[in-house]
What does this fold into?
Amino acid sequence: MTIDNTEGARAQIGVTGLAVMGSNIARNFARHGHTVALHNRSIAKTDALIEEHGSEGDFVRTETIEEFVGALQKPRRVLIMVKAGDPTDAVIEELAAAMEPGDIIIDGGNALYTDTIRREASLRERGLHFVGAGISGGEEGALNGPSIMPGGPKESYAALGPLLESIAAQVDGTPCCTHIGPDGSGHFVKMVHNGIEYADMQLIGEAYNLLGSALGYDAGKIADVFTEWNGGDLESYLVEITAEVLRQKDAKTGKPLVDVIVDAAEQKGTGRWTVKSALDLGVPVTGIAEAVFARALSGSREQRKAAVGLASGVLADKPTDAAQFTEDIRQALYASKVVAYAQGFDQIAAGSAEYDWDLHPADLATIWRGGCIIRARFLNRIKDAYDENPTLPSLILAPYFRDAIETAIDSWRRVVSTATLLGIPVPAFASSLSYYDALRAERLPAALTQGQRDFFGAHTYERVDAEGKFHTLWSGDRSEVQV
Ligand code: NBP
It folds into this structure.
């Protein structure tokens, strides 16, 4: 049932799901002069928001879905900010029953993009617009300006875009929000964004570990290194907060907080989703995969406890030139980060081709420059690279990044080899370097793989000097036949 109370239908946007993300986004809308209808399954969160922040703007308190929908101007725009998964389906169903054709439902939760594709198709059949919007920036971003990645029907963006752009982060006068593409594309790029975030955090973690384990720096000194790095090419939100976390003292013990935090990293699943999707698409996202596995290994606490004391073999001496090794680590971090982003953008290109989304990498680099967790100075360089050549075969081949890696390559090799000789794990640094070496190799051992596959499974191979598929009669006279 729809209650169309025209007099009362004054809200430009409705937000349902008023936990931390939803209430901060609702406040952000209100602070930008929009009238916001509020709804939450349990009324307590709605009332708490109005009591604590009601003075920040124009809110409409509603209790039932019908009241909520009736409070909205047409076309009605409702942002769902509930727990991803079944709760989202339940809320969509309730809303869809109360809404009319042409209305817009936006899911701002961390939905799996295939769920978004399914939901969009089903709501389209009912005449409703469904927008799967990736939102990055955590609680703080939601309140003060997130990066927003809305997918879905382009025509709904005309009614929705200006609202979302008004609350998004702004960089150089450009909002960190743009229409991404059809159906699940917004949540897909948000997923890859999170995957890149995993890789970035793992690389920073490896740099921190090297500074501590190879150079003997304490947390405070490592914080200073990160602060210095943040003044250069590595300038980014994650590098900035790394210094802050490392500088934090534990009130109870007086030690650096990081030294009393259990070293087992948790994950909510978007990194894992990114890797699963990359496996399906056949895209090597080695940096992201290593980051997901590194978190899993860190969390295997019983196994790790049992393995402490295993032989390290003879270890090399620690580097004597601390300044040089610190610079080597900085270079290795930058080069590995370029690889992680290159792989993430490859996955976006593959997803775009698979689902016919026509995604624009330069647009993504633009809206990731502010508001989101991976915001970084070098996203400007990525935007420039794709503006110059939208069909770059790999980000690594853009002149700017090619030069950056050429500058970093000797340092990168020294870091990976030194870490190995010192017994310090650097899975993301090492796999990124191996990826780079494999990408630039003229010949790969895949020729042998093809020979083996033909031997045991008659899977055939191609020749470097002739067209077609070939098979060697391995269990016969070993002559070759064309198939
Ligand atoms: P949560 O993910 O903790 O979800 C809590 C909200 O979901 C509450 O409003 C709760 O209502 C509602 N809800 C649940 Br649980 N089951 C429901 C159901 N069956 N029907 C209706 N409502 C239901 O909140 P959050 O951390 O604010 O995140 C919201 C969304 O934003 C999630 O999808 C999350 O993945 C995504 N996200 C979070 C972040 C972040 O940094 N936290 C960043 C980006 C995106 P109740 O009050 O009645 O229990």
Residues 1-5 have pLDDT under 50 and may be disordered. DSSP finds 19 helices and twelve strands in the chain. Residues 17-22, 40-42, 45, 81-84, 87, 90-91, 109-110, 135, 138-139 surround NBP (CB under 6 Å).
